Amino acid sequence: MLVLNATYEPINVCTVRRAVVLLLKSKAEVIEQGERPLRSECEVMTRPAVIRLTHYVRVPRDTHRRKITRRAVFARDGWECQYCGSRQQLTVDHVIPRSKGGSSDWTNIVASCAPCNRRKSDHLPAQANMHPRRPPREPSPHVFIHVASPRIPAAWRPWLPDADAYADAA
Prior knowledge:
The protein folds into two domains: 2-59 and 142-166, no CATH class; 67-128, Orthogonal Bundle (DNA Binding (I), subunit A), CATH 1.10.30.50. Helix content is 22%, strand content 19%. It has six helices and eight strands. It has helices at residues 16-24, 70-76, 114-120, 125-128, 143-148, 163-166; strands at residues 2-4, 10-13, 28-33, 38-39, 44-45, 48-53, 90-94, 109-113. A hairpin with a 4-residue loop joins strand 4 (38-39) and strand 5.
């Protein structure tokens, strides 16, 4: 379930169980409904797909400083190689190799397919004549929603920026 702040800003992904608890405690409201209802022994309720918190929750703005993971790099780069555009055999590449003084941070790591990674090897981009299609950057906080759920349900798309870029991911 996609969780929106009171300001309709996407902030998290949670399980159906957590969403139902928030709804039953009146801490959230259903914005988009799922296809099938939820049933208990004595009650039927709509399955939430998107919920909105009723009170604003302050979200730390340094979410982009989260640990760098392969999935987060892939999500940031649209699940495609930054050298050739392939979506197969993805791995990560240091644009400036660590052996040449490159750092392991968001601004030096890109998604790369295995063949491009092998071809670039331990060379600088100019030496290998391989430059990333987009310069690596710190991701927006919304990337971590795509990491939590690589397949974005249709009900979430209106609430996420650039959701179409990740719609067919994974």
